Amino acid sequence: MALKTEEMVLNMGPQHPSTHGVLRLELELEGELVKNVIPHIGYLHRCFEKHCEAMTYPQIVPYTDRMDYLASMSNNLGYAIAIERLMGIEVPERVEYIRVIMAELQRIASHLVALGTYGVDIGAFTPFLFLFAEREKILTIFEETSGARLLYNYIWVGGLAQDIHPDFVRKTKEFVEFFKPKIKELNDLLSYNKIFIERTANIGILPADVAINYGITGPNLRASGVKWDLRKDDPYSIYDRFDFDIPVGEGLVGTVGDSWDRYYLKVLEMEQSLRIIEQAIDQIPEGDVHEAVPKRIKPPKGTIYTRVENPKGELGYFIISDGSLNPFRVKVRGPSFVNMEVFGELCKGHFVADIIAILGSIDIVLGEVDR
Amino acid sequence: MYDFLINIFGNQIVAYFVAAAIPLFLFILPYALFAVLAERKVSAHMQDRWGPMRVGYHGVLQTVADILKLIQKENIRATLTDKVLFNLAPYLVFVGSFAAFAAIPFSSWFIGSSIDIGLFYFIAISSFVVAGILMGGWASNNKYSLLGAMRSVSQIISYEIPTAIVILTMVMITGSLNLQTITEQQTAYFWNWNILGGATFGIGKFLLIPLMLGAFLIIYISTLAEVNRTPFDIPEAESELVSGFHTEYSGMKFAMFFLAEYANMLAVSFLIVVLFFGGYHSPFGYIGNSIGVEWLVPIEQFFWFASKGIFFVIVQMWLRWTLPRLRVDQLMTVCWKYLIPYSVAILLLVGLITLI
Q1: What ipTM was reported for this prediction?
Q2: What domains lie within chain A, and their CATH numbers?
């Protein structure tokens, strides 16, 4: 007589240490093998988009901070660019340079969190604290200039909240010099660790065609071998003035598009961000950052869609203006939300432990998934 | 030492009880308090942090405060747990890991019980822990606990095989199961330790050295897995299973699992020290002997034994805070595809060498 067996349904989250926030996963398990994954999102839904309709344009800026709270500067930047294009505002050179430096520092800070927490997911706790110590230096730079450490409300429509701190340039240069050797340290400690490679290589392979079909963007898409980066392919701000490369996943230790590639691509991107900062920091021209900030933001009737390359992928703002002080509609294309969709596809046939490895490598922020 | 205690108490049974209680209260429990603090301090300093700093000088009393807090906590038991098994499990684990110290010789003057099947007793009593873990995981009626317990049991049982084979190898070399006899064979200086081929001098000693190094590595890795430490802490895998088989435990019951883990770490370290690193013998000879103070020798021996044991515990902590965690199937691969064949090969080669 055969033993009666049944699948075990395991609820992972929303209170689970490694779902990176309040995500709930419903796992159908056979032993430790995952048959199916159903993600349940929405625990952090704050009605951002509907809320925007009741607010004036400048009031929305602090709310964009709270979407991808690890990349507030980049969120601000995307929103500011959208309204500036809608209103036809020319932004002073100084503002553009500061924005680019801020966005790239923010990219490094966001990737540091992603890499560190990924280490924790795999079981290595020490790299997490090392990387957070370095992120702390970026946050200190941000704090001096904007007054906040996480939610900056710094990049405004037409300009910046205030000019940079007198120490900003010196501290940023110091950080760049300090951080370069740390990348090698990270590679020695975690990236090329045999156990780490065993755990992540060939796990959760995302082929390029699947990635494109699902609309995956950002490091996840590039890790699958597709060279697509809005900073090069649809340049905004002044990114076309800088010399930097777009790294793509090469499957150094496994297959192209596996979890290790997604991890390592972030390491490579940090190097490129450092290159951009190095070029930009010496060229900041003099000027007034408030020069182009409009007294009253009242865009003409019309619609606009702009997209920027956030640390986690393409952040798109679709804004309909009815010519009043409030937007008629704000729609956000959050990269974490779109990247999340492919998660179920990647997990099938893996072990429970791999679910964590895949989820960490996709690098989602629930604040943006749920908005 | 028994004669000494019997003389004092005038009763054999009381003397035995006292003999058993001395290491537990004078060494193991203070050690557990020390080890928990050491883990936090070692991890903190590896991670550019200070660790606990508030309770006492540099937080030395932190563990005492934690234990006091845990004693005060409510003992929560969820409704659908199996009451008997749930309550029994922590005690089994606790007893299993602390009873292992009975057969370990702390110095030539002190051993809980110098039984002739010491090694056998050690393996048997530490397997007790498996039953406790399985009971705890099953009785908790929690899917995470169940998964953790399943992983833990398969892991511990698998890794007992290479451990047992290496122990068998050592038994072939030393010809004894008595831990004190094994220690006494490695007397005097460090080149007599088993890791360097043992006390007999000859061509066999030099042939044994590489094999002993291999055997030491195998037993160190597999004991690491047996006490559920990183990179083999899969049963507790914090980021996957929350904390595995002891997720549902609170208060003092949780503390028992916790202290048992640290006691286990020390027990396996002591086993390795006895088998490979000369047990309680000093590497350089004794001050007590050279200045003619006989009673100093056992104290020195205790010092050397404790230092060697704690050294290996610190190495376990160092590994934990450096390495990521393996996956369940990879863990089994390491055991069955690498450790067991190599340990069998070492067993055969050592057998040939002892024939020379």
Answers
A1: 0.77
A2: 8-370 (1.10.645.10)
